[in-house]
């Protein structure tokens, strides 16, 4: 179902806008289509894009961008309530710190910074993801979650949702890596960083998501325990999520 024709919405102003529907849980029940969407930021949507989102019935948007990012590129979509769940970006500052310390910015060091960022999602930003799940449990009204590129903060959030719905981890990883096929990277400024470094920054790697999942496992003894203990998504909440977002086998 990874390359299902309904997955990518192919919007002009948001290349990474896609549906989490169709992935099957361990029990064989598919995630409902047209309920859960993930995306890069929505400030560049065209009028036609906005109409397409409206036709999808999206009424909720969960924005993980930091305060400055939101202020720099705000957006408004009629009928869509925005919920700010800010997670401040840290990788660029990490790169600046390396340069200030006289250290070379290499692809390997950039990977380390990305992994550190993903571990921080687990250790420092659990409240944001817990708030997301609180909203998810309220209703099954169609929603979109996004950050700037829709790959890191959004990628971890989408992974948590699918894992809470008992989608197998290897499928969750496949969806995460789909960003590399869809996301249109911004124009490179190779005077500021080597292309090899920029490729690390603007793409995703299994090592990144694994860093977060391993951090959750080490701190809590497993993903199920992390969901329950850190995010408030225990057995009862997961049953509710399944009722809202999983469809009978064979249904859309």
Automatic annotation (TrEMBL):
Tyrosine specific protein phosphatases domain location: 127-167
GO MF annotations in UniProt: phosphoprotein phosphatase activity
Pfam families referenced in this protein's UniProt entry, alphabetically: Y_phosphatase3
Domain of life: Bacteria
Cited InterPro entries: Prot-tyrosine_phosphatase-like, Tyr/Ser_Pase_IphP-type, Tyr_Pase_AS, Tyr_Pase_dom
Protein name: Tyrosine-protein phosphatase
Organism: Ottowia testudinis
Lineage of producing organism: Bacteria, Pseudomonadati, Pseudomonadota, Betaproteobacteria, Burkholderiales
């Amino acid at each position: 179902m990874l390359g299902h024709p309904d997955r990518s919405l192919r919007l002009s102003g948001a290349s990474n806008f896609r549906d989490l529907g169709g992935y099957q849980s361990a029990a064989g029940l598919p995630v409902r289509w047209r309920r859960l969407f993930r995306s890069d930021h929505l400030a560049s949507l065209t009028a036609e894009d906005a109409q397409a989102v409206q036709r999808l019935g999206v009424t909720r948007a969960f924005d993980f961008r930091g305060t400055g990012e939101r202020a720099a590129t705000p957006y408004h979509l009629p009928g869509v309530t925005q919920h700010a769940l800010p997670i401040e970006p840290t990788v660029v500052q990490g790169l600046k710190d390396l340069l200030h310390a006289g250290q070379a910015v290499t692809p390997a060091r950039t990977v380390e910074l990305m992994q550190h960022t993903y571990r921080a999602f687990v250790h420092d930003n659990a409240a944001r993801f817990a708030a997301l799940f609180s909203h998810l449990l309220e209703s099954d009204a169609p929603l979109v979650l996004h950050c700037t590129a829709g790959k890191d903060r959004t990628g971890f959030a989408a992974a948590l949702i699918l894992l809470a719905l008992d989608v197998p981890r290897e499928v969750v990883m496949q969806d995460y890596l789909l960003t590399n096929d869809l996301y249109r990277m911004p124009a490179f400024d190779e005077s500021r960083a080597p292309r090899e470094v920029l490729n690390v920054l603007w793409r995703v790697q299994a090592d990144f998501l694994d860093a977060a999942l391993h951090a959750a496992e080490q701190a809590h003894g497993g993903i199920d325990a992390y969901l329950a203990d850190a995010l408030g998504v225990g057995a009862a909440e997961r049953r509710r999520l399944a009722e809202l977002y999983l469809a009978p086998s064979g249904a859309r």
